[in-house]
Amino acid sequence: MTVPVLQPIRPRAAVILAAGQGTRMKSPTPKVLHKLAGRTLLDHAIDAAEGLGCERIIVVVGAHSPQVGEAARKRLGPNATVVQDPPLGTGHAVLAAKDALADFNGDVVVTYADCPLTTAGVIAPLFDQITGGAHVAVLGFEAHNPTGYGRLILAPGHVLLRIVEEKEADLATKQVKHCNSGVLAADRAILFDLLANVRNDNAKGEYYLTDVVGLAHDRKLVTRAAFAPEASVQGVNSQAELAAAEVVWQKARRNALLVEGVTMPAPETVHLSWDTQIAGGAVVEQFVVFGPGVSVESGAVIKAFSHLEGAHVGEGALIGPYARLRPGAEIGPEAHIGNFVEVKNVKVGKGAKANHLSYLGDGSVGEKANIGAGAIFCNYDGFEKFQTHVGKGAFIGSNSALVAPVRVGDGAMTGSGSVITKDVEDGALALARPEQTIKAGWATKFRALKQAKKDAKTK
Ligand code: UD1
Ligand code: CA
Predict the structure, then answer these.
(1) What is the pTM of this model?
(2) Ligand whose nearest atom lies closest to the CA of 179
(3) Adjacent-strand bridge partners of 319
(4) What is the CATH number of the domain that holds 79?
(5) Are residues 245 and 218 in the same domain?
(6) Which of 154, 188, 236, 344 has most Cβ atoms within 10 angstroms of its Cβ?
């Protein structure tokens, strides 16, 4: 899924708030490093900022979870984080980014790192308000249940007078259903100027970012709201909320794939990753799981209960049921990977088949080769990995063990049950198993003897 980067009219920067403790996750993993669709919440937030065309992105982190800062710097560079310690409210958190943005001239958008469904597309209407002349714009939503949210006090024409936090709200204000998502945009200089005037004489004793709206309005600056669907601005505070966000994300992405022409008879059972690419004309059956890094070409069929990650499936290939494709599995067009076959770091040629109970790890399988049931690439000696190469049109007998490094030539065959340790030349047959011996009549005599013994006992 490639998100087009919008070309901003004025330079944009983002301040992503991630200094919260996230204690309700009850996990040693910091909240924003939990994953949705196989990607951390933090990365989703950074994706949104990048998708909006932000040329500077500052992540505000707490002193309590250094891993969050490390993850942000790894992706964005050494100057991408500032520490807020102790956390004294959202306004105080944004102020922590003041020096980092001192030389930036343009608009700043403030977002939360724990809102993975708030994509660039969701935030875009906020910048329409800025472009339309707003000095401060806030992304709102109509809450099913507004309890806990800051309320937007609106005047006609999306004019925003002020935001009242739940704890400061009187009974009448609590009836307001228009709520603050937390996403706010303003010109950098105006924003920090307003923030310098925010005080903490409120119910929580915090510096509320939301107070900048009332301050701006008092100064006769233009303050407006834009709106987004409630589900797209939901924050994640607990494992249950993370799971709920995952459901929303999965459903939206599956629907997009259906629109693009992917056939899914039971879409609700298919699990996708943030970067899963499936071309129209592909079929994905029930209970298929896509880990990160998978692309599937048109006409391919992924049968039920298959698990794929880091794999490419070519046109018209047939995968599963119960197949496992691991990173580096490159399945060529019209190839077949059947039940209980695991493929890792192997390029499988066009029309090749491995239909039953195999492990293909590290190497290649040539075009139209046939891998018999139970064949194994023995790729690991406990220390190092080695490659197995099977040539074009080769035939690997059932239950062959190919001990890497080894090469089976084009059109060559291996006998069933062979343990192949030496290269096999093109067109040859390799047999590596004890020769069969035949003892004529032995079984008949054996049975007669045993039966006579049994009969003698029961008399
Ligand atoms: C905030 C908004 C509220 C809005 C709601 C939406 C304020 C004062 N209130 O309330 O209007 O409806 O979000 O969910 O802005 N954070 C920091 N440092 C801090 C405090 C918070 O980085 O000192 C981060 C948190 O990690 C979180 C975000 O800011 O990602 C929001 O903080 P939270 O305490 O959840 O704000 P709310 O009280 O829910
Ligand atoms: Ca919150």
Answers:
(1) 0.93
(2) 1
(3) 302, 337
(4) 3.90.550.10
(5) no
(6) 236
